[in-house]
Amino acid sequence: MDSQGHDIQSPGAGRTVEGLAGRRILLGITGSIAAYKAAVLCRLLKCAGAEVRVVMTPLAKQFITPLTMATLSKNPILVEFFDPENGAWNSHVSLGEWADCYLIAPATANTLAKMACGIADNLLLTTYLSARCPVVVSPAMDLDMYAHPATQENLRRLAERGVRIVQPAEGELASGLTGKGRMAEPADIAAFVGQLLGGENPEKKKSLQGRRFVVTAGATIEAIDPVRFISNHSSGKMGYAIAGALAARGADVTLVSGRTALPTPAGVRRTDVLSAAEMYDAATAAFDRADGAVMCAAVADYTPDTVSETKIKKCGGEMCITLRRTRDIAAELGARKSSRLLVGFALETHDEQVNAEAKLAKKNFDFIVLNSLRDAGAGFRGDTNKVTFIDRSGREELPLMPKSEVAERIADKIESLLK
Ligand code: PMT
Question: Where does the chain bind CTP (predicted)?
Answer without folding.
Answer: 301, 311, 345, 359, 363
